[in-house]
Amino acid sequence: MTTDTASGTLTSTPATARSHMAMLLGAVLVATSFPVGAAITDGLDTLVLTFLRFTLAAVLFAPLVAWRHGLTLPTWRDLGRYAVLSAFLVGFFWAMFAALRLTSALNTATIFALTPAITAGVAALLLRERLNGAARLALPIGVVGAVWVIFRGDLSALLALKLGWGDVIFLAGTVSLGIYGVLVRHLHRGEPMARMTFWTLATGALWLALLAAPRVGSVEWSTVPGHVFAGIAYLAVFTTLVTFFIYQWSATVIGPTKVMSYTYLNPALVLIIGMLLGHAMPPLATYPGMILIVAATVVLQRAPSHSTTIQRDAAT
Fold first, then answer.
1. 295 partner at 20 to 30 Å CA-CA among 43, 138, 159, 215?
2. Where do the structural domains in the chain lie, given as residue ranges?
């Protein structure tokens, strides 16, 4: 990544182009996680389910990291960095599964649309990242567009939305995810991103092992439906292992706010995935919301982000 010394803005590089393509793939995978999570969350204890998801992802990723970069034990200082990252990540995924027991997928999708704005706020505090006026306008427009699509342009449905404890839990989890996205860039020390991803997963599995240990023994494994294990495998490989690597690498290339802006695409992608599965076409009333989402995402990707972290990385 290079910096235009005259304007202070970031210029496009092959790495940024690859990062945006990777984020599009990551956005599609994330869009599939909500229906899969909703389908399996009642089949197993929330903490145990999340523990299995992290552990399986770490076990599958370990051989690749060992082959490409070596798998030496990190120092206590580095382990502390990874543990902090994983704590916020575990908080989000636990909140997602816990919330889905108490609230609807519609409510969680609505709250999830706030992630880019939350991330921008955290980035401004921790990284002193500043977005230009167009980008500051795009953030609320993206929220409006996402909510528009979620409620299919029906204002009465939006006004009828009732929030409960499940929604409060998921909002806390969404804040945790926003903090995680910012800390990835803040805590990265130049190590291969695959290694950072693995140790984030491994320390996350350790956090969850401590929390889930009292509950694992009470699970009647023979009665757990097969589709729950299949769902855990899918979430571990595609929406945990693959997306973690994509998000962590992209956050160091294009910045956390631009990475999280891709979550605006989630409602529209959910509709597209539904159409591919044979569901009915979305009503015309959702199309203005999709246009707002795409416009907000494009503006945020093109907006220069100025921070001391970006300036430091550009110099190297």
1. 159
2. 2-315
The single-letter code of the amino acid at 262 is Y
User: CB under 8 Å to 76, separation ≥6 — which residues?
Assistant: none
Tens digits of residue pLDDT in 7-30: 334 445 778 888 888 888 988 888
pTM score: 0.71
The encoded tokens of residue 231 equal: 């769902």
Please, which residues have CB within 8 angstroms of residue 253's CB and are 6 or more apart in sequence?
1, 15, 16, 19
What does the block give as tokens for 135? 């980008």
Name the 3-class secondary structure at 10. strand
Which of 1-15, 67-81, 160-174 has the least mean pLDDT?
1-15
Beta strands in 107-217 (DSSP E): 130-131
Rounded to whole angstroms, the Cα distance separating 309 from 303 reads: 16
Q: Which residue has the tokens 């439906």?
A: 225
DSSP string, 27-59: HHHHHHHHHHHHHHGGGS-HHHHHHHHHHHHHH
Backbone angles phi, psi at 283, to 5 degrees: -65, 155
